[in-house]
């Protein structure tokens, strides 16, 4: 990673989160979403939205986001796609070129492989929800900057809050390190469940990595079997 070390990035994010909580800013985004929706419908107070509506309102806000410089170079905001009521949420690092063009997460060869992984545990792509930590593509697919992660954090954190998945599968080291606030390698993190608030987190290798290292597909299969078994054991 060029520039600041990963441990420095994690420290910056932790400091930002602490300041955010101290300032009581954690609920600002949802409040503004509810307010804008109620005003649109001509109502005087907040309205209760279902998960699909809440995600749509959040996406509308993401489409207009200019909190970091990626807003100037993106073709499309790649917000996320899938079942708003999904028990399984996949989170990757950031959109690539094809995702930026199509405005959809995990398309192309890596997306095809992810679809096969999902189907291997008895689900379909439309059963799960797929998103990235960043909603805009970094130039040349470089690693995200701390300012970009911080700018996008409220979006993917709110996605998690709205969807309420039973399991979050972090695809690749950056998604896992960003969500779990650690600088441990994906090799050390993968294969074990971690707790993120009330949700289980399973880090595993990114599909793009598997395209370059097909010998590690068996390790991802072991990880995904644990995810499958946990979902089967969890109450509906």
Comma- or semicolon-separated keywords:
alpha/beta; Uracil-DNA Glycosylase, subunit E; 236 residues; 6 strands
Q: Can you walk me through this structure?
A:
By secondary structure, the chain is α/β, with parallel strands linked by helices. The protein has one domain (6-233): 3-Layer(aba) Sandwich (Uracil-DNA Glycosylase, subunit E), CATH 3.40.470.10. It is built from eleven helices and six strands. It has a six-stranded mixed sheet with strand order 1-3-2-4-6-5, with helices on both faces. Strand 5 (194-196) and strand 6 form a beta hairpin. The longest helix is centred in the middle third of the chain and has 18 residues, at 146-163. The radius of gyration is 17 Å and the shape is globular. It starts with 5 loop residues before the first helix and ends with a helix.
Short description:
The protein has one domain (6-233): Uracil-DNA glycosylase-like domain (Uracil-DNA Glycosylase, subunit E, 3-Layer(aba) Sandwich), CATH 3.40.470. It has eleven helices and six strands. The chain has helices at 6-22, 28-40, 51-63, 70-73, 97-102, 108-120, 146-163, 173-180, 186-189, 207-212, 217-233; strands at 81-82, 88-92, 129-132, 167-171, 194-196, 199-204.
Strand content: 5-15%
Uncertain spans:
22-47
- Reported by name, the CATH topology is Uracil-DNA Glycosylase, subunit E
The class by helix and strand makeup works out as alpha/beta
- From the alpha carbons, calculate the radius of gyration and give it in angstroms: 17 Å
Q: In terms of topology, how is this protein built?
A:
Blueprint: H1 6-22, H2 28-40, H3 51-63, H4 70-73, E1 81-82, E2 88-92, H5 97-102, H6 108-120, E3 129-132, H7 146-163, E4 167-171, H8 173-180, H9 186-189, E5 194-196, E6 199-204, H10 207-212, H11 217-233
Parallel strand pairs: 2-3, 2-4, 4-6
Antiparallel strand pairs: 1-3, 5-6
Helix pairs in contact: 2-3, 3-7
